[in-house]
Amino acid sequence: MTDFKIAPSILSANFACLGKEVEDVIEAGADFIHFDVMDNHYVPNLTFGPVICQSLRDFGIKVPIDVHLMVEPVDELVDSFAQAGATFISFHPEATSDISNTINLIKQAGCRPGLAINPATSLDYLKNCIEEIDIIIMMSVNPGFAGQSFIPEVLDKLTLARSIITESGREIFLEIDGGVKANNIASIAKYGADAFVSGSGIFGTSNYKKTIDHMREELAQL
Ligand code: DX5
Ligand code: ZN
Question: Which end of the chain, C or N, has fewer beta carbons within 10 A?
Fold first, then answer.
């Protein structure tokens, strides 16, 4: 049975009590904390940087932190996120001039690299680096904002990405990001995702444990 990972995106958390929100969502069953970094340049929105990641670690958060960089350029931020306690660091291939160099920087800094693929981005980017990455973030919305609707056209890409992973023989998380909720998680999993980012789908509900339990029940029926 697949070991599905649930990764709540703190983009939809209440920032006035972020530590408590993250503790609550972990207690409710979250596997990873998804950390959306936006720079008002690569995407038209501005969120948070390494100091917030460090604060979560200082607060006692131990689970993997899944940093999703929606920034351009990328390289300058790698070391500071690594030092701030990031586990995974994923970036958009269009946002860096040398993809393998960025991957190497992430590895040298002691983190696990990933590529984030927009709905309109080709999976060709995976070909040259599949041996080097540990996670693929398949975007099912255009990056920039929480609370958007899932783009169903991405499902076929998910299947293709899954076959690329299988062919590589490597263990790589295939994480779907955008518009994931308890009511569509099972149908998405059928296309090959094994990790699920959900922002508004979890933080927008009143009982995180009930929501994550519901997600796991849906996944268990596959
Ligand atoms: C979008 C972000 C997502 C987003 C998910 O740019 O990468 O992680 O916060 O939020 P929901 O689950 O609300 O679509
Ligand atoms: Zn994200």
Answer: N
